[in-house]
Amino acid sequence: MKNNNTQEMFANYPDVVDVSGLQSMLGNIGKQKAYELVREGTIKAIKVGKLYRIPKINVIAFLTQ
Fold it and tell me: What is the 3-state secondary structure (H, E, C) of 6-48?
């Protein structure tokens, strides 16, 4: 998957998503799997209080690596 195509696919998403947005971006994966990906650092995220915020560019990087 090319980076340009991926950016176009996610054009309607905000620049920073939460875990439910990540689930949607990755094809409606389960909540547990989404949390696992960010907790393990597979997808880089920022924790703000109790919530994870995931930059869209990090999701694209995960998909294109």
Answer: HHHHCCCCCCEECHHHHHHHCCCCCHHHHHHHHHCCCCCCEEE
